[in-house]
Amino acid sequence: MDGFDAERFTRHGFGGHGAALGMRYHAHGADWAELALPYDEKLIGDPASGVIASGPIITMMDMAASIAIWIRRAAFVPHATLDLRVDYLRPAMPGKTVIGRGECYRITRSIAFVRGQAHDGDPADPLAHVAGTFMVLGSW
Amino acid sequence: MVSTLPPYAATLGVEIERDAEGRPVLLMPFGDDVIGRPGFLHGGAISGLLEVAAIAALYHAIETEGPEDASVRIKPVTVTVDFMRGGRDKPTRAAGVVTRLGTRVANVEATAWQDDRDKPIAAARMNYLIVRD
């Protein structure tokens, strides 16, 4: 496959775990991708407040970073998450869609370096900050 | 007791088991809802399992070590997940260890494994803010 079309790749939504969470495509650029995670009761981690768990945000940031790497590599080729760190700046507001932006800011023959942020409406008021690395692999 | 899990844990299909000492061990069956690429668990689902295991371990520690009642809330501050192996088509277990439970902060480590607990598929370090009302 020559090139990688993030919008086309996600046009029919996600399968597996992404589908179970209700994750959707939002936007992308030359080295970044944004996904959307609409609020859903099944994502709640704290029933008392209705705040969603941090796990779904990790999933979204992992996937957004993955798509950013595929865009950057211009191909749908395999990689594996090596590590991912998420800082929770504040809880996501119950009822609001969370937008997660992953960026691949550096790629070598072996490693892709990613970073990203998540917000629930105002990019200037992020709720999570993410940094991670992926092992770059050959072909499927 | 940590007997009720949040809706997100149900979304992952996670259930609580106990080890010989009564500490919580979380079990996540393999299924369509936790798949990433075909035949493998999604890294995010593994991370979610680790998070649920860490929180269960933390509540267990708060209940067994502290005299306080259940009016303690915990807030995640940082989570760092290392992925060692792909998660295969089989059940995954995870357990957390509270390395320090302070007045305001708790440090928790969690590991996830499939066949052999000594061969983790992923591990996480998590720092939580403790809010004692």
UniProtKB/TrEMBL annotation, chain A:
<dbReference type="InterPro" id="IPR006683">
    <property type="entry name" value="Thioestr_dom"/>
</dbReference>
<keyword id="KW-0378">Hydrolase</keyword>
<dbReference type="InterPro" id="IPR003736">
    <property type="entry name" value="PAAI_dom"/>
</dbReference>
<dbReference type="GO" id="GO:0061522">
    <property type="term" value="F:1,4-dihydroxy-2-naphthoyl-CoA thioesterase activity"/>
</dbReference>
<dbReference type="GO" id="GO:0005829">
    <property type="term" value="C:cytosol"/>
</dbReference>
<protein>
    <submittedName>
        <fullName>Uncharacterized protein (TIGR00369 family)</fullName>
    </submittedName>
</protein>
<dbReference type="InterPro" id="IPR029069">
    <property type="entry name" value="HotDog_dom_sf"/>
</dbReference>
<feature type="domain" description="Thioesterase">
    <location>
        <begin position="51"/>
        <end position="123"/>
    </location>
</feature>
<dbReference type="Pfam" id="PF03061">
    <property type="entry name" value="4HBT"/>
</dbReference>
UniProtKB/TrEMBL annotation, chain B:
<dbReference type="Pfam" id="PF03061">
    <property type="entry name" value="4HBT"/>
</dbReference>
<keyword id="KW-0378">Hydrolase</keyword>
<dbReference type="GO" id="GO:0016289">
    <property type="term" value="F:acyl-CoA hydrolase activity"/>
</dbReference>
<dbReference type="InterPro" id="IPR003736">
    <property type="entry name" value="PAAI_dom"/>
</dbReference>
<protein>
    <submittedName>
        <fullName>Uncharacterized protein (TIGR00369 family)</fullName>
    </submittedName>
</protein>
<dbReference type="InterPro" id="IPR006683">
    <property type="entry name" value="Thioestr_dom"/>
</dbReference>
<feature type="domain" description="Thioesterase">
    <location>
        <begin position="39"/>
        <end position="119"/>
    </location>
</feature>
<dbReference type="InterPro" id="IPR029069">
    <property type="entry name" value="HotDog_dom_sf"/>
</dbReference>
